[in-house]
């Protein structure tokens, strides 16, 4: 009854959550690498989303860990093979390691980007670094914008090619429909001609049969008269013989 195993149900949720957390983590690292300040709103939002996802993932992962601990003592009691137990243990370890690595990155961010002291004077070199970062951000923005434009151009080109293919297909279908229409018209003309010929032949056959029946009836009357005359002649001869003899 593997379909009723709660571990498999929670496993599906964990795998789905870890799959959705990976792009959030990648986005967080990208925003962190380009952010000028740890108080960046976009960085804070990305961090909050990632922390929420990791919290939900940790709760489900704890349930999986407890389940694995329960079946490790006596797997056969739960109808499981040792290979399945090892697979579950490996799954829990792999997901746990990945979650822990994400949490370590969040902790490194806190320690590597301390809150600035409002009373402290800024270092003059920070202005140069900020200016370079801003220029670099502009360069990256231009690069991303050009990449996006190129991607959109490629998508439009692909759509144009697909539309051309659809147009050619529709043209071929239209040509085929036109050819089929002409063939049907030709066949209709041929059928009309065949019907006309059939009517003519049927009329001729009817007339021929009528003539044949007339001839047969006429012949039947002639032979009947001949037979009657022959019988009368035979009776007369017999009467003469009877009288003579």
Automatic annotation (TrEMBL):
Any single GO BP term: Golgi vesicle transport
Record flagged with keyword Transmembrane: yes
Annotated ranges, domain T-SNARE coiled-coil homology: 153-215
Keyword match NADP: no
SMART domains: t_SNARE (SM00397)
Membrane-spanning ranges: 223-244
GO cellular component, one term: Golgi membrane
Keywords: Coiled coil, Golgi apparatus, Membrane, Protein transport, Transmembrane, Transmembrane helix, Transport
Subcellular location: Golgi apparatus membrane
Membrane topology: Single-pass type IV membrane protein
Coiled coil: 47-74
Family in the record: Belongs to the syntaxin family.
Name used for this protein in its record: t-SNARE affecting a late Golgi compartment protein 1
């Amino acid at each position: 009854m593997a379909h009723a195993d709660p571990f498999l149900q929670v496993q599906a949720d964990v795998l789905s959550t870890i799959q959705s957390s990976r792009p959030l983590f990648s986005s967080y690292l990208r925003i962190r690498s380009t952010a000028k300040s740890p108080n960046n709103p976009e960085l804070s939002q990305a961090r909050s989303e990632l922390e929420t996802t990791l919290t939900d993932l940790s709760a489900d992962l704890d349930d999986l860990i407890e389940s694995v601990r329960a079946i490790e003592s006596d797997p056969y009691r739960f109808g499981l093979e040792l290979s399945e137990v090892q697979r579950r243990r490996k799954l829990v370890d792999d997901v746990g390691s990945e979650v822990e690595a994400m949490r370590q990155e969040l902790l490194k961010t806190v320690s590597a980007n301390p809150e600035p002291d409002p009373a402290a004077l800024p270092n003059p070199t920070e202005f140069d670094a900020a200016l370079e970062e801003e220029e670099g951000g502009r360069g990256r923005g231009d690069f991303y914008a050009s990449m996006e434009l190129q991607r959109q151009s490629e998508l439009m080109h692909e759509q144009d090619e697909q539309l051309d293919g659809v147009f050619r297909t529709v043209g071929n279908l239209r040509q085929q429909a036109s050819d089929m229409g002409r063939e049907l018209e030709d066949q209709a003309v041929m059928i009309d001609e065949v019907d006309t010929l059939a009517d003519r032949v049927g009329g001729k056959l009817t007339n021929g049969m009528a003539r044949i029946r007339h001839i047969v009836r006429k012949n039947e009357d002639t032979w009947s008269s001949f037979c009657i005359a022959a019988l009368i002649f035979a009776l007369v001869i017999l009467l003469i013989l009877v009288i003579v003899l």
